[in-house]
Amino acid sequence: MEAIVINHYGDAKQFETATLPVPEVGAHELQIAIHATAINPFDCQLRQGRHQESYPFHFPITLGSDFAGVVQAVGTDVTAFKVGDAVMGTLPPTREGTYAEVLTTHGKTIIHKPAQLSFTTAAALPLAGITALQALRDHLKLQAGEHILINAAAGGVGHLAVQLAAQTGAIIAVTGSPDRTDFLKQLGATTVIDYHDTRLADVIHDYDAALDLAASADLDELAACLKSGGRIMSLTKPLPEAWLQQNQLTGRQIWSKPNATDLATVTDLVANGNLTVTVSRTLPFSELGLNIAHRLSEAGHTQGKLVVQMIAD
Ligand SMILES: NC(=O)c1ccc[n+]([C@@H]2O[C@H](COP(=O)([O-])OP(=O)(O)OC[C@H]3O[C@@H](n4cnc5c(N)ncnc54)[C@H](OP(=O)(O)O)[C@@H]3O)[C@@H](O)[C@H]2O)c1
């Protein structure tokens, strides 16, 4: 099978095409012909070598975690899936990722793809959707009528979080570039703040909660928007205990925990027309396609998701 791998940590020029053996399918595993994979900022961070201590992989590394495709083989103990099923899912970080024609993996974070979702949409949803859901429901415990600030709202996680927060009945302020204002308002934001030239606390204050998705965010600026006793969760950086106490806030850095139940929850919302996944660009499965996709992601202004297609929908 063809995979697009990295043999060195570095910039987006590292991608190289490789012909790899198709692994044997273990008793509990599925083998999936991948139709589409999505780009997540974490893929770029792995490629840059920023997580070598946590994930000491050996080269070649196949990056990528989100996928949608069709089952082409199942292990002897697999009963939930059969050959020909359309599936979608996300992988924990491993050396064998989804920038490949074929994926062999256990079925723990895989679900059936509803017919209403294209392979492109299905590949775009998993990690971003699960992350947005868990951040609002499990960590911030957002309630109807509360005011929430979603910082960096137009990207993969943010554009789904805005919609989920709106469904909860929250009042939503977001940060985004001026050309994202209409997009963000259509998703459910009531206030869109241009983060380039506006002090957030000049526009909003006494908010109940904040979800921080911007690695470069100034924490003090976010704190100034929150009421005493407010909650803040960050997907990008630690929130020091002393800083939280000083600002009379509760919160922490959070990590998503992919699981099939939460993936099914967000997938059902999409299938039923209650959640929209925006794919702003699809790219071909090639060294150049991945190079462009990673450079776009690193530029930090992705609207919704970037998807790489092995097989067009
Ligand atoms: N901890 C976890 O489990 C976990 C899981 C998923 C993601 N993450 C992290 O969460 C972050 C967001 O992920 P993502 O997939 O949503 O990323 P993404 O799609 O690349 O986000 C791009 C968006 O970020 C916005 N942005 C960039 N800099 C900003 C700033 N200073 N202030 C406000 N907005 C800014 C851009 O807005 P404009 O285009 O409007 O300028 C763009 O729409 C990443 O750092 C990712 O690594 C963590």
UniProtKB/TrEMBL annotation:
Q: Which residues form the Enoyl reductase (ER) domain?
A: 10-308
State one Pfam family annotation: ADH_N
CDD domains under this entry?
Answer: MDR_like_2 (cd05289)
Against SMART domains, the record matches this protein to: PKS_ER
- Entries under InterPro entries matching the protein: ADH-like_N, Chloroplast_QOR, ER, GroES-like_sf, NAD(P)-bd_dom_sf
Which GO-annotated molecular functions does the record name? oxidoreductase activity
The record's section on SUPFAM superfamilies has: GroES-like, NAD(P)-binding Rossmann-fold domains
PANTHER family under this entry? Answer: ZINC-TYPE ALCOHOL DEHYDROGENASE-LIKE PROTEIN C16A3.02C (PTHR44013:SF1)
Record's protein name:
Nadph quinone reductase related zn-dependent oxidoreductase
State the organism of origin.
Loigolactobacillus bifermentans DSM 20003
Upper classification of the source organism reads: Bacteria, Bacillati, Bacillota, Bacilli, Lactobacillales
